[in-house]
Every structure is written in structure tokens, then in C-alpha cells.
Amino acid sequence: MRNYLAIDAGGTSTRAVFLTGSGQCLGYGVSGGGNPVSRGFDDAMEALLQASSGALGGTPQPFSSVTIGMAGASLELATEPFRERFAGLGLSGNVVIESDLLATFYSGTCQDNGYALIAGTGAVAARISDSRLAAVADGTGWLLGDSGAGFWLGREVLRAVAAALDGRGKPTALLEPVLAELGISGGTQERTNGRIRAQQQLIAKIYALAPIELSRFAPMVFDAGDDAVARDITDRAAAALAGTLTAVLDGAVDGPLVFGGSVLTRGGSVAGAVVSRLSGTIQQGTRQQGASRQEGAQNLVVPILVADGMAGAAVLALKRAGVKVDEAVFERISASLAALRA
Amino acid sequence: MRNYLAIDAGGTSTRAVFLTGSGQCLGYGVSGGGNPVSRGFDDAMEALLQASSGALGGTPQPFSSVTIGMAGASLELATEPFRERFAGLGLSGNVVIESDLLATFYSGTCQDNGYALIAGTGAVAARISDSRLAAVADGTGWLLGDSGAGFWLGREVLRAVAAALDGRGKPTALLEPVLAELGISGGTQERTNGRIRAQQQLIAKIYALAPIELSRFAPMVFDAGDDAVARDITDRAAAALAGTLTAVLDGAVDGPLVFGGSVLTRGGSVAGAVVSRLSGTIQQGTRQQGASRQEGAQNLVVPILVADGMAGAAVLALKRAGVKVDEAVFERISASLAALRA
After folding, report:
1. Looking at residues A104-130, what average pLDDT do you find?
2. E strand or H helix that includes residue A9
3. A168–B244: do the CB atoms touch at under 8 Å?
4. Per the CB < 8 Å rule, is A144 touching B203?
5. What residues of A are in contact with residue B143 (Cβ under 8 Å)?
6. What range(s) does the ATPase BadF/BadG/BcrA/BcrD type domain occupy (chains A, B) (predicted)?
7. pLDDT for residue B221
């Protein structure tokens, strides 16, 4: 029986699993960021090999393919340079790069039709049809979109604080944690050259950061308690994410809804708010065969939350090799992977 | 009688004027970006000297001070390095750096109390009291604020186009000019890996730009005709700018309202929309002495539009030297400067 290597390569961390054709995960490894578009080929390759070596138990072993789940632009990379490096670990066949959207989707289900919504640093939704990406919405990055995700939330938190300081915006409970995080003390009333001093310091501190680092202020919006400004931000985030998912809905495609990314899986209320905004759309837009609308809508609007795309990369490794991944195989992958991670 | 040198140093262009104590402008010069914070000291200094030399007619002549209008952070620069370099052109006294907000304000009036709102690439408002900045709002830069100004508008235009392409947003007349500007043709329906092809190209083109370059898409919002998406963007811009100005209003301070920056002076409807949003606030918040509210509001809500801070830097040069700048002197500065520029 053949064995397979599956990798979930993220921007900041990478996971790999070595598994059999029956879905039994034999080994698991982790490493740093493995995306060649954001990290550069050599650094990313090193991370991929390190996680893979961990999954193989440190010893080359024969496996017939490598399946790597990666973000968008990586799908167009030539795979030959990857194949050469994996040959040293025991690869006999090909390297296949799959979308991280598919890897996330298949971490929650073995069905070949459905929907995925991811809100981590960025936000993206996909309709999956016949195990391929049929439609993708957003995922357009921090300047053009990614509306409602981590960078967007962090930026909105900071904009709200900047506006509260000079009176453009309402007072907010977000002010104190942001100033504390940045080491800014006092000066929220005093002005120099007309400018509130704490705001001047905020400007100096924030523009010393790389823009993408603004996402680190996102979690504060979930810890702000009963604050109207924070609630407005999370409401707008949920509306944006619901809109992104709605853009890929198709009445002809039915199936599970998988949620990934920390804003949805750890963000508390956002996942629920997205679902409640969707209910009407989904009742009208999908699940019209057989089951009553009400039942169908109830099925679809209970999202499956997944932590990453590791199980899905393993599912894809088997599916693309022609192995039928039924519920039993899917459960075997999930359970044996969970055991290795524990 | 003493002469003075006044400079309006912007991020992309610099203007200088050589004038008498009676406000007669004798010479005018221009050069590139003269802000030491954004350009670096040496490049900025070169631009300042080049514009100054132009104003002096290419020959050193005695003048008793240099007054430079510059954006925010420059106010804290040490002036000694400037003084040494200007000595070679004929400076006998000091270099004084003034806020570009004051320079803009005094380009429209010689009164020492009032308000300025600037919306160019960034957006900032100030209350001027006794010829000093009493309160400043926004001007917090492209990540933290500058709401309603050029970068903000350009980014909103691009986000609207990205959203229209994948169905998150409404169709918009902004789509065609943005794709044409970026050289993207076709592919607004076809998908690759689920992604609309034109959107994939949009992503590639936009992230190859420096973020601040997004401001070049701002003017498209004013050329979109009767487009609901464009109108929503300009409505939100006007609301944000009105909010920024409202944050510095003080019932105790009365005086002229000066508008600067291309979004207000060349943006067509935005200045009017800001004013109409302000009317209620101003009637309630200011002008309560003597004149009826209605008359007061009408005076205040007719903004004075100015192209830059050149005349204001000249006004400041005289004021800071103890020269009384009355209406006659102000008119002399304005008229003689206009003649030199013609």
C-alpha cells in the first residue's frame, strides 16, 4: 500500500503529516512559515522540508506524492523545484499544490460540494463544486479588501482610538488597552501645537510598524466588553464576512459550510453573527431539493469550525491519488491526526 | 525697511517668495518636495534653497528671517542647520518653522481666529486662536485616519471595484476607468481557480504600488457621473471631513473658515457637501454674539478656498516679525504674489 505526504503551509507556520492510503496518519511535524510567495523560495522550502522530516520521523521513507495546501498565488508555481528537494526524503511521484481554501474545506468534510469561509489575517470565501474551487470572493489583501478579518479589525480598532483622542469619534474602552500595548501613558487631554499628545505618540508608534502588524490589535475588539464602538466594529466585520460568503452562494450547490481562521474560530461572537446574517439568504438560495427549507437552512447554517488545513491537505492527498475518501476514511484521518497532535 | 523670505514647503513641491515688510512680493521661486521628514534633510534643504534662490532672483540679498510652512512633525526640527545654509543667501536672523495648517489658514485671511480644513492626500482640521494652533483633528495619516482625503478616496474606489468584480459589491461605473488605468483588459467574468481573472490582475497591479500611490485613483470618484457606488464614497468622504472639522469647532472661537487641498478645492461637490453637513452644527456651536444665528452661520459656512500655503507663509513672516498685517497688507501680499505667479 502506498503512503503519502500532506503539508499545510501557512504564512507563519507549517504542518506536515505522513499517512497511509487508508487515512491512517503515521507521523506529524511542524515548522515556520512555508509560503514561498511571502517567505521566498529557499526559506519556505526549508520550512516545508523541516515539517516533512518531522512527519517522517527523521528518516527518509517512500511516499508516492506530496500535496501542499498554500494560499492563492502559490497555485501557479512550478512544482519541479519542489519535487527535486522532496526526492531526498523518499518522494517517488509528483508534488501537487492545492489551494488553502480547499485544504480548509476538507478539514471539515469529505464531501465534494459546499462552502468555506476563512477569516484570519485576511478574509476569503469559496464555493467548492466537484472538489474544485468554483468561485472565490475577497481574499484581495489588506489594501483592496480582506474585509472583516484580522488586519481590517486591527486597523479599525486603531482608527477608532485615533478618532476618540481628538474628538472625531466617540469615547471607547479600546483606548486604554491600545495605549497600554504601545507604551503610551498620559497626554490624552494635553495638546502640543494643537495636537493631543497621546495621539502624536500613537502616530509615531504605528507608522514605525509594518502595516500588516496592525492585525495584532484585532483581538482587543473582542475583549472590550459592552463598548458601543467595539460593537460597531464587530457588527461591520460580521456584515462584511456574511457579504463575502453570500457572494459565492449558489442555489444549485448544496453542502457543508466550513469556517476557518482565528476571527471565526476564536473570535467569539463573529461566527454566530455571520451565521445569523446568512440565514435568510441561505433559506432562499440553497437547499431546495427534498428537505424542507427550514431543515435545509438549519443544516447549512451550523458551520463546521476547523483550526487549520492539515486534515484537508491529507484528504486532498488521497482524493487526488484516486483514493475514495468516505466518512470512515475521513474519521480515520481526523482521529489519528488528533492523536499525533495531542 | 527689512525684507523677508517665506517658504511653503510641501511633500511634492515647494514655493518661496521674497517680500518687503509692507507685503510687496518681489520675487517668486519653485522647486520639488521640501519636507525634511518625508524627503530627508539634504534633499529637502536643496529644494528649499532652490526655490529661495529663485525668489531672490538668483543673487544673495539681505533678509531678516526665513519662515517655512511645513507639515506636522517638522515643527519639532532644530532650526540651526537650516539657518547655516540660508546665511549664504543673505539671512541675518532666524529660521522659523510654522505649521502648514497656519500657512493654509493665512492664505485665506489675515484674522487671527478661525478654522482651517485641508483635504489633499491627507485630511486635517485646525482651530486657530490668537494666531496659534489651538486644536488639531485627524491628520493621522493613511493607516490611522486622513478620512475623506485623497488616499482614503483612492482606496475606497479600488475596494469598490474589487468588490464589484467578485459580486460582494454593486456594479459600478468606477470599474472601467480603474481597469483601463491599470491596463487590465477583459476577464471580468472568467475565473481561474475560482477567482475572477480581472480581480487577480487588479491584486497583482495594486500590490506592486506603494500604498500612498492609491491616492491617484481618487479623482475618478468625481468623474463617475450618476453612479450610486461613487456617490456613496463621496457622501462618506464629506461626512468624515465634516466630522473632522466639527471636532475642532468651539463656540467661543469665531472667524473665517479656510479650505485647502485638492479634494476640497478641485473635488467639485465635496466642499459643498461638507458645508451643508456643517450648517446645523455651526448655527448651534458658534456665532452667538451679536449677529443672529442665521446671519452668523451664513458668514461662517462660506469657506475661503486657497490653492496652497504660500500667501499664508508670507503673512506669517510679517506677523512673527511684529508687522501688523491688516486687510491692506494682506491684499498687497495676495495681489503681488498672484502677479508674480501669472
Report:
1. 95
2. strand A3-9
3. yes
4. yes
5. 155, 158, 206-207, 211, 214
6. 7-270
7. 95
- Do both A161 and A51 map to the same domain? no
In angstroms, the CA A321 to CA A77 distance is: 20
pLDDT of residue B281: 61
Mean pLDDT of A190-203: 94
Q: Per residue in A6-63, pLDDT tens?
A: 999 988 899 999 999 999 999 999 999 898 877 888 999 999 999 999 999 999 999 9
Number of domains chain B is built from: 3
For the beta carbon of residue A214, count every other beta carbon within 10 angstroms.
24
**pLDDT for B67-85, tens place per residue?**
999 987 667 788 898 999 9
> CA of A125, closest CA in chain B: separation in Å?
10
Q: In 3D, which of A125, A219, A151 has the Cα closest to residue A11? A: A151
The answer to the question of residue A151 being in a domain is no
Nearest chain B residue to A151 by CA distance is B143
Last residue of a domain, one of A192, A226, A260: A226
pLDDT at A286: 44
Q: Does the CB of A137 have a partner CB in chain B at under 8 Å?
A: yes
d(CA A183, CA B28): 46
- Does A271 share its domain with A188? no
∠ at Cα A322 (A320, A323), nearest 5°?
Answer: 105
Chain A hits for B144, CB-CB cut-off 8 Å, are 158-159, 162, 202-203, 206
Considering only CB atoms, A193 lies closest to which of B99, B163, B199, namely: B99
Distance from CA of A195 to the nearest CA of B (A): 5
User: Are the C-beta atoms of residues A154 and A142 closer than 8 Å to each other?
Assistant: no
> B268: distance to nearest CA of chain A, Å?
24
- Which CATH number characterizes residue B45's domain? 3.30.420.40
In this structure, the answer to whether residues B158 and B218 fall within a common structural domain is yes
Same domain, B79 and B206: no
Tell the residue number behind the cell numbers 523545484, with chain if given: A81
ipTM value of the model?
0.88
